[in-house]
Amino acid sequence: MKPVKIGICGLGTVGGGTFRVLEDNAELLAARAGAQLELIHIGARRDNPDCPVGDVRLSRDIFAVARDPEVDILVELIGGTTVAKELVEEAIRNGKHVVTANKALIAEFGNVLFAMAEQHNVAIRYEAAVAGGIPIIKALREGLAGNRIDWLAGIINGTGNFILSEMREKGRDFADVLAEAQALGYAEADPAFDVEGTDAAHKLVILAAIAFGTPLQFSDVYAEGITRLTPQDVSYAEELGYRIKHLGIAKQSAQGVELRVHPTLIPEQQLLANVNGVKNAVVVEGSAVGSTLYYGAGAGAEPTASAVVADIIDLARDLAVGQSPQLPALGVASAAIRKLPVIPMSEVVSPWYLRMEADDKPGVMSQVTSLFSAQGISIEALIQKAPSPGETRVPVIVLTNEAAQGCLDAAVKAIEALDSIVGKIMCIRVETLGS
Amino acid sequence: MKPVKIGICGLGTVGGGTFRVLEDNAELLAARAGAQLELIHIGARRDNPDCPVGDVRLSRDIFAVARDPEVDILVELIGGTTVAKELVEEAIRNGKHVVTANKALIAEFGNVLFAMAEQHNVAIRYEAAVAGGIPIIKALREGLAGNRIDWLAGIINGTGNFILSEMREKGRDFADVLAEAQALGYAEADPAFDVEGTDAAHKLVILAAIAFGTPLQFSDVYAEGITRLTPQDVSYAEELGYRIKHLGIAKQSAQGVELRVHPTLIPEQQLLANVNGVKNAVVVEGSAVGSTLYYGAGAGAEPTASAVVADIIDLARDLAVGQSPQLPALGVASAAIRKLPVIPMSEVVSPWYLRMEADDKPGVMSQVTSLFSAQGISIEALIQKAPSPGETRVPVIVLTNEAAQGCLDAAVKAIEALDSIVGKIMCIRVETLGS
């Protein structure tokens, strides 16, 4: 067995974690990989005081790692999609296998990078790009390979889940919890990436491509954030036996695929409803296996490093004996990848939760229900709350049966036009997740 | 790419499921494996009316499949440990790779079979042997390969979990629910295998060997069943904020490994506590990733077939291009496998739940607590219930802090000898699972 030689680009949070896991568990990793994993070259613009690189070669020009003839596997941990993309391309051109934790890079440029890697007969692995340390890519790509995947749904942004958990457990406002999440370092100074759903959309499109054998279609993902949610919605959902989670959902049907990220009411007895704090979890529905769930830390230096190192070991097993890793980037032979139409959101069907403010007077509910009925939408539950003291308006909560968004929007527009309804109606999708 | 040729031995429940998955998803599986998966030979003592074998060769002598020069992968689905062992050995001698769902075979004879397979340069895969369709073997062996595994704990017998779930939800007796489970086909006519913990012990020892890089040590597993549990225990546990689950637990420490299957109180907010019915779930604590959980169907024809087919696809990717699969049977190079001492149960430490019947008179509790104290055991909670009308005895529930079983046993023996304590004391371990 020859040693397998690793180059790491980026020595920040995840790079530092990966460095430490490779150092701390060196003997164990060699036993599992069947070969020594030798970190021989680090590319980093600045030192990381937690990572004493010793006599490992250190380059300030990260491209030197991609061109190092000794390096077998280049580990891209610099993030972003400009320099990172050039770096990965340079590594591929130089015959390096690539391991990356970069969800944006894979989601937005995976198609071209995977094609280029195949041409050069090298592998790209990206377990750490989705749900941190949870081996969900491996589960979907290999563990469930015997199944047609019908749908998957996941809590794949820990910051958003932390905020929703705090809102529910303590009745706090969105803005208040967000400020705390920023103070705790969970959320970026600009939190839009987390709370508007972009980060979840990146991860969702990667999971969907593996699940359905499609190209990565990031620009087709519908992403709706959690910024509009109020403590009232969280609390009413709970009264009705639901929890609100920010889910990434991908479904396959005869019409095509649904790719969507949005707040969602799910039944409280679902395991997914009980995933709290910054944790991630993904439910996958397979044709043979039924429902499986994967849960764990979705971010953080060491959990992400766990996934990065797992990818390195997988590659190293083959490289140590001079074999070529055979697993295709999406788990499907590239010739078999088929673009499927993404179903427009107006045609996507689900039950709905709606909350509106109505004048507390006779006849209003009858007007509202007839406008739903006009769109062919049936009502599962309608709760008119008592008015607060001195108020003449009451909150009205409606749970509908399944309705396409197009029909729902039309009904909502008509209801909002009623004199007795004040302001906008809050609309949140419901998913039963097979329960 | 050359087609990969499959032989299946056994066409019962799991064999039939595997046959159907291979047929139904043929095109998808070929895309994922990068080669056609051709079922060319079936060994079965009798036909399965749900499996029209068409022009696939059918042998009543299953050993004919192991000797078929065309077969690349032999799939052993006959169960048991006598003929199955001979069959797998014959397949290995004939250079076949082996996929099996047989937990007893791997748990009891894995060490010799893995060594023999390595000699003959073939692979043995057994994802379906633990937790049915949940890809837990793959997660532990590959997905978490970057971690030192500290412990794992799982609900790995669906029948037992169904019984405990029903006892909790409906206050039913063990015997009553067991009879229903037998009627539903969840439990065998002789249910000892499920409810006494043997089945869970088989699975636990497989998970532990992968997690810790040890040989399979089935005879060293402590197995305690759920037959003694009463609805009262289930209900008192709930009052205290716990659920009772039948867990397989493996822990690694400086002293060695713990391998144990027993009823366990776990905190109700743990995800594992909310796994109900026949489902399985396993929590794994890794040094880098922290806690991850894997959930799904632990049995059944199609879920088990899902795992079998995943193993076939993994092997097929390499075989299709004439490469040798490099993953060792336990995920660790055989030269690196180390036998670790199994810690005797008397030294295994945990908090405890105890229930006893005491005379309802002054001084009894003081006697009881002083006997715990004499063994160095401190008490976390002590609840004396009110006597039932007309009763002079009361149930007393005790939660202790951490105590080795040896000390606990000594205290229990002394307490049972008190005149004021009636009958035996019920003792159940508590695990916080890191919460």
Distance between the termini of chain A: 50 Å
CATH names the topology of the largest domain in chain A as: Rossmann fold
The outline of chain A comes out as: elongated
Which percent range describes the beta-strand content of chain A? 25-35%
The CATH class of the largest domain in chain A, by name, is Alpha Beta
Secondary-structure content class of chain A: alpha/beta
Sheet of most strands of chain A: 10 strands, mixed
CATH architecture of the largest domain in chain A, please? 3-Layer(aba) Sandwich
> Regions of chain A with pLDDT < 50 over 5+ consecutive residues?
none
What oligomerization state is this entry in?
homodimer
Radius of gyration of chain A: 24 Å
Number of domains of chain A: 3
Number of strands of chain A: 18
Can you tell me about this structure?
Chain A is an alpha/beta fold. The first copy, chain A, has three domains: 4-133 and 301-336, NAD(P)-binding Rossmann-like Domain (Rossmann fold), CATH 3.40.50.720; 138-297, Dihydrodipicolinate Reductase, domain 2 (2-Layer Sandwich), CATH 3.30.360.10; 345-430, 2-Layer Sandwich (Alpha-Beta Plaits). The first copy, chain A, has 14 helices and 18 strands. Chain A has helices at residues 13-24, 26-33, 63-66, 83-93, 103-119, 136-143, 158-170, 174-183, 192-195, 198-212, 231-239, 301-319, 364-374, 405-416, and strands spanning 4-9, 37-43, 57-59, 73-76, 97-100, 124-125, 149-155, 222-223, 242-253, 256-267, 279-286, 290-297, 349-350, 352-359, 379-384, 393-400, 403-404, 421-430. In chain A, strands 7, 8, 9, 10, 11, 12, 14, 15, 16 and 18 form a ten-stranded mixed sheet that branches. A six-stranded parallel sheet of chain A has the order 3-2-1-4-5-6, with helices on both faces. In chain A, helix 2 packs across helix 12, helix 4 (83-93) packs parallel to helix 5 (103-119) and helix 13 (364-374) runs antiparallel to helix 14 (405-416). The termini of chain A are far apart. Chains A and B meet through helix 1, helix 2, helix 6, strand 12 and helix 12 of A and helix 1, helix 2, helix 6, strand 12 and helix 12 of B.
